[in-house]
Amino acid sequence: MGMLVTNLPTLDPLVLTSISEALFEGFAQHMNITRYHNVVPGIKAGKQLVTFNRHAGLAGYKRTNCDTTANDSWTIPTTDKTWAPAYISDRFEECYDNYMETFIRWGLNNGVNKADLTGTELAAMITQQVQDLLTEVAIRHAWFGDTGIAAGTGNNLGAGDLKFFNAIDGFWAQLFDIATATPARLSTGLATKNGQATYALQKFNATDTTNMVASTTLDNMYYDADMVLRGQAKSDMVYLVSQTVYDQYERERKKVGGGAILEAYRRTEDGVPQLQCNGIDVIGVHDWDRTIATYLEDGTAWTLPHRAVLTTKTNMLLGVEEAGNLAEFDAWYSKDAEKYFIKFGFSLDAKVGVDNLVQVAY
Fold this sequence. Notes:
The protein is an alpha+beta fold. It is built from ten helices and 13 strands.
């Protein structure tokens, strides 16, 4: 069995004796699951999701006296989707003996309890990593899940890696389908950069800043959006964008403002500046960029590195059994196996609630 913590220096009298003496890379900022997703509990198995759409058809005309004819052209249409949650889980194990020739040895328990990692610095550090991992796993499946994904097609995944992506159809798979079925839901602006043949050519440059590529794209998305989306309160709407788009938009606002952000920031309640476009928050989603850079590339170029979604804060639905499951894991020591075990598991599905409450660019 391999070690969970790799590349440790071998034991030496001069090496550090505690994990607290080491440096840590730190954890990347994850997308706020509860703020930008509508977490729907009670989804344990296949369940119908029905949406009552806005009324359609004509109504109201000059009627003659005593006309009792019912109007059959005005309706309240519905659409339905089906929750299909998948149980997503994993399990890890660790043996103390893997660390006997490293500085971790100083932090192990003594005597007959040496094999029990409970309460050690090593267990605490692994726990922190797993907590960060849980959010990453949920967001990867929710956004990049694709039941039809194929190894080596727009990705660098081998056949054995597909299980980490094909449990459900995530938001991007659905958004691609929505844009294909209704081309009006796809705005122009990012396709030229995404379609370049190399990493270098896909990156935004000074010419793109001059041409205001990101600003124009976000603007197009707002004005191209279905009037039902346009009719939502701007405080309820959000632009979710790849960090590449966010950074480019920021550069463009600085250029227009002569080095300062021009009419693009507002202060949030906690005092943190928030970039906006058309009075709507623009959120850079680091998780998209990390997933694309790590897995959705073919050795020459990334697969759609620049992406953006305009929607409402409640339209991206995450179906779970219980909301707390996404952050839960279990850790224990087995005396019989003399190993330390960690596992997590949660049921998850993702659904774009109302198709015409999204506008995308990629």
